[in-house]
Specification:
about 230 residues, mainly alpha, Helicase, Ruva Protein, domain 3, two-stranded parallel ribbon
Length: about 230
């Protein structure tokens, strides 16, 4: 049972060191607060009025309101999934989203934009949903588009969830870990911390931002009494 739980949740927050878990909680709070600031800035006067001949030529497609109004739910469900199953991916996604919010809020504060909304003629369910959006969301905070940036950030991080990575551990690396992870008093209990610090953390950085970003193979050996990683 324990092996099964670790297999499914081993990279999530429940098996993370307490420092990582605390960092994830703080990031979750920052994401919530950053999202709430949107409403505070959603007002005029606007400096930019976003309407082009192309906007006027494109028809309103009412059914597209569904992904628009679903974004918040998709964001929070995705972040909960990342937190439970891929804590490092969760942290990376939160940091990227917070940065996107800060950049966007700078525009909304100093270069506010307004979208000239088209008139709606239909009475179908989706058109009525668009009218509800018009009533609850002022036509400001349009550039940069947070719907676009948040969707892109989440899509990029979904690609990072389940990449195929093969790890080979050389005999000298096994001996090195056994030596560093054994304590005369506590036995092999320190081994988990050694593996976290010397193997998982470096590989997590490579998976998120480096040579394993698209999957691959890594072999772990020892060089100058330190673990050495080779990638293919």
């Amino acid at each position: 049972m324990k092996i099964t739980l670790h297999r499914w949740f081993g990279q999530g927050v429940f098996f993370a060191p307490w420092q990582d878990a605390l960092m994830s909680v703080l990031l979750a709070v920052c994401v919530f607060v950053a999202n709430e600031i949107y409403a505070v800035l959603n007002h005029g006067p606007a400096v930019l009025h976003l309407q082009t001949p192309l906007d006027e030529a494109l028809p309103v497609v009412p059914i597209f309101v569904i992904p628009y109004v679903s974004l918040n739910l998709i964001v929070y469900v995705t972040l909960v999934f990342f937190l439970v199953f891929r804590n490092k991916v969760f942290q990376s996604a939160c940091l990227a989203m917070i940065l996107a919010w800060l950049v966007s809020y700078g525009f909304y504060l100093f270069l506010q934009s307004e979208m000239i909304r088209p008139a709606l003629a239909g009475e179908d369910m989706f058109t009525r949903m668009i009218r509800d959006v018009y009533a609850s969301d002022h036509p400001f905070n349009c550039f940069p588009s947070l719907h676009t940036s948040m969707s892109t950030i989440l899509a990029i991080h979904w690609f990072r969830v389940d990449r195929r990575i093969a790890i080979g551990l050389e005999p000298n690396a096994r001996a090195w870990l056994a030596r560093r992870g054994y304590d005369p008093i506590y036995g092999a209990r320190p081994l988990a911390r050694v593996i976290q610090a010397e193997v998982r953390d470096p590989l997590t950085d490579e998976i998120l931002f480096g040579r394993l970003e698209h999957g691959g193979t890594v072999r772990i050996g020892v060089l100058d009494d330190r673990l050495a990683f080779s990638f293919a």
